[in-house]
Amino acid sequence: MARESNRNATATTTPARPNASGSVAERSAVTSRPSIHTPSGLSASGRKPTGVPTPGPGPGPGPALTPHARAAFRTIESRRHAAVLTPHHRARQRRQSAMRGDVARDRERETPRNVLLSLGKVLARTTQVITTSSSSPEEGNSRASANQGQRGDDEAEEDDEDDVDDELPKRPRLSLPIDEEDEEDDADLQPHRSAGLEDDDTNYNDLTVRSIELPRREQPGGTSRFSLGSMGRMSDFYLNNANDLDDVGIDSGFFPPTVPLYDDGDNNTGDISAYERLDSDAALGRRDTIGGRESDFGIIEVPVMDVDEGTFVIAPQVQDSPTRPLPLEEEDDYEAPEPFFYPAGGDDNDDTDDDGNLDKSPDDPRGGVVARSTAEHGQKRKRNVKVSKHGVEYPSLPPAVVKRLAQTFAKTSGVKGKISPDALKAIMQASDWFFEQLGDDLQAYAKHAHRKTIDESDVLTLMKRQRQTGSSATPFSLAQRHLPRELLQELRMAPPPPAPSRRRRKPSSDEAEDAEEVT
Amino acid sequence: MPGQKLYPRATVKKIVKAHSNCNVSKNVDVMIFLDYVLFMQTLVKEAAIEAKQGGERGITARSVKKVTADSLAKFRG
């Protein structure tokens, strides 16, 4: 079709050009365009209609055009715009006049399109031109041919005109160079800029989000410092449950793993992650406090894995209790089934512990400590000797004391009944961790004050930081509430040197205190 | 509580000493034990709440374990 139109254009233009013969024009039209160019360029100065085809090489008025040709092109363009903008009947009138009167004007109007078609033929493959600019150019061509062929028939004209009128508003868009530019722009820009991105976004919205977040999630796992550490810590909580006895020892050798009586439910949540964590934990060996602090961030991702998020969030706080190799060894000893009630089995535990520790890991300081501690406190009947991170053995609080405390508080909090041995064991472990944490904190405070001794001020600072003491509760009031009389006396007698107002005393007890202090 | 002593003072002292690798001055262990009592109070209270929420009667190991981390975090210095 494009070729046909081109031929038509050349054929119609040939009579206007005296210097170019028809055969040459046809040949040139099909094969090469400069042959068209030069004559049209020559004739452009003289005539408008022939000047029109010249802009062919360029989308707009080409650089080769003479000013006259440009003017002609402009006029044609304006005419076309007018045709577009004017209502239908005017376009029809003009159309009809063009049909009937002079073919030249008709040609004028159509020539840009023809030029564009030829241009498209040269620039792009013919097939593409035909396929892409499908509807309007074809119809335009058909119409052009129809105009030339069926000039006489009114009905046919009418039909054609109707068609043309219908098409008219659309036509310029497709045939004008602007449109092509747009298409080119689209072709160029879409892959480059927003279009492609938008496509990606729309299609892979989720994927992009995931691809952003996945590395985050993977990083903690990869570095295995934060979340895994904390998880490992948490795994302690969950894995103390009897179902994995092996794991208990890694972090907490405090409690001899005993008969798996309880906690089927907890393990469901903790199990899968716990295994990973423990592995990582073992790889880590020991977590430092920095890791614990940083795990605040790592934990954000944690909740994906487990249902118990609330507990996980606070995991890092617990982290401080170090994983040491020594408890592991104790653990091995502990593997032997033991009676979990301490008073009964305490002595046995001690024996096994001491033996195991001395045999497997002969730590010089520890041995010395053992000797010293045993020498000092021979009267201690139940003692589960564990080793702190500083390599110092220490006993845990007697379970009877813990149980009594727990029961009093349970009673005050409205829980009836005794505390089960399992619960007691959990409480014991918690208190062990508590002392570990407390020891760390106190050490930090003492060290900060360049002391080697933990002072009362350290404990006061600690309690203040724990928000146990504040405007509502003074340390002394707390002591009065919770400690027996003898201990209170001890407390009062303790720091006469530091200051009379070492802590805010309860005003009511001041006099008695003073009296006691004086004595 | 009345007749017996509340807690073995030397034990507390030893525990803290082992963990902190510092000496513990004379009557600090009382304060430390006071802190421990407060901790126990918190822990048991929370455990009781947790047990109630879980529909258990009495304090179970599960409830205690669940609130241990919380309580420890609360008592972080």
What does this structure look like?
- The complex is a heterodimer of chains A (519) and B (77).
- Chain A is an all-alpha fold and 519 residues long.
- Among the domains of chain A are: 187 residues, no CATH class; 106 residues, no CATH class.
- Helices cover 70% and strands 1% of the residues of chain A.
- In chain A, helix 1 runs antiparallel to helix 2 and helix 7 runs antiparallel to helix 9.
- Chain A is rod-shaped, with a radius of gyration of 48 Å.
- The N terminus and C terminus of chain A are likely disordered.
- Chain B is mainly α and 77 residues long.
- Helices cover 69% and strands 3% of the residues of chain B.
- The longest helix of chain B has 27 residues.
- Classes of the chains: A mainly alpha (519), B mainly alpha (77).
- Chains A and B meet through helix 14, helix 19, strand 2, helix 23 and helix 24 of A and helix 1, strand 1, helix 2 and helix 3 of B.
- Strand 3 of chain A pairs parallel with strand 1 of chain B.
User: Which secondary-structure class do the elements of chain A indicate?
Assistant: mainly alpha
Give the biggest beta sheet of chain A. Answer: 2 strands, antiparallel
What is the distance, rounded to the nearest whole angstrom, between the alpha carbons of the first and last residues of chain B? 29 Å
Regions with little confidence, pLDDT below 50 for 5+ residues of chain A = 1-62, 136-165, 180-188, 194-206, 218-383, 495-519
Can you give the mean pLDDT of chain A?
A: 55
Q: State the end-to-end distance of chain A.
A: 123 Å
Largest beta sheet: strand ordering of chain A: 1-2
- Uncertain stretches of chain B: none
Count of strand segments of chain A: 3
Percentage of residues in helical conformation of chain B? 55-70%
Keywords (chain B): Centromere, Chromosome, Kinetochore, Nucleus
Family (chain B): Belongs to the CENP-W/WIP1 family.
GO biological process, one term (chain B): kinetochore assembly
Subcellular location (chain B): Chromosome, Centromere, Kinetochore; Nucleus
